[in-house]
Amino acid sequence: MALDTSDFKTGMGLNFDGEIYVLLEFQHVKPGKGGAFVRTRLKRVKNGSVIERTFRSGEKVEPAFLEKKKFQFLYKIESENEVVVMDMDTYEQVHVDANTLGEGAEFLKEEAEVIGLTVNEVVISWELPNFVELKIVEAEPGIKGDTVSGSSTKGATLESGAKVQVPYHINEGDVIKIDTRTGDYIERVSRG
């Protein structure tokens, strides 16, 4: 059942040119001369790139039925660059290439919830939590008043194995909040 451009709604999935897209925004345009058209901004689900595309008014497009499924991150298999997640509905364990999780996967710890965006029961992309709270397992010593180095941060290793830069007052054992999209330290949640 193909959709007409008049059926477009923000957030819907579209399937054309062999790719799946999410409709970010659209605008119906009726110029003084020529036929009406629909100007759109679409996000390619596979890699997250955003494109602009114009459709003729009344043009037919195949819908893609996108579904979000909850998964729980279980553990990493470092030797194979894989992670294991569990479908929260069926409790089935699924092996996933760590690279497909995208940026921020290094900040996942056991039992973290991730969302799988599926089309026809096949996961085509992953949404990770924007912020996580992780314990610091190793931190460089911070020397108060050390202005010679010219830096106000030091290196730290988190319980997930990720390495980040934190302010000097953060110590081993502290729990900190991290933005998984950028890898930046946000705040200290609790002292160790």
Output the keywords.
192 residues, mainly beta, SH3 type barrels, OB fold (Dihydrolipoamide Acetyltransferase, E2P), 3 domains, six-stranded antiparallel beta sheet, five-stranded antiparallel beta sheet
Write down the CATH class of the largest domain: Mainly Beta
Q: How large is the share of residues in beta strands?
A: over 45%
First-to-last CA distance: 57 Å
Q: Structural class, from helix and strand content?
A: mainly beta
CATH architecture of the largest domain: Beta Barrel
Q: Major sheet: order of its strands? A: 1-6-2-3-4-5
Reading the helices and strands in chain order gives: EEEEEEEEEEEEEEEE
What is this structure, in a nutshell?
The chain is mainly beta and 192 residues long.
Tell me what the structure shows:
The chain is mainly β and 192 residues long. The protein has three domains: 3-64, SH3 type barrels (Roll), CATH 2.30.30; 66-129, OB fold (Dihydrolipoamide Acetyltransferase, E2P), CATH 2.40.50; 132-190, Nucleic acid-binding proteins (OB fold (Dihydrolipoamide Acetyltransferase, E2P)), CATH 2.40.50.140. The chain is 0% helix and 55% strand. The protein is built from no helices and 16 strands. It has strands at residues 3-4, 13-16, 19-29, 37-44, 50-56, 60-64, 66-77, 82-87, 93-97, 113-119, 122-127, 131-139, 153-158, 163-167, 175-179, 184-190. Strand 8 (82-87) and strand 9 form a beta hairpin. The protein starts with a strand and ends with a strand. The mean pLDDT is 87.
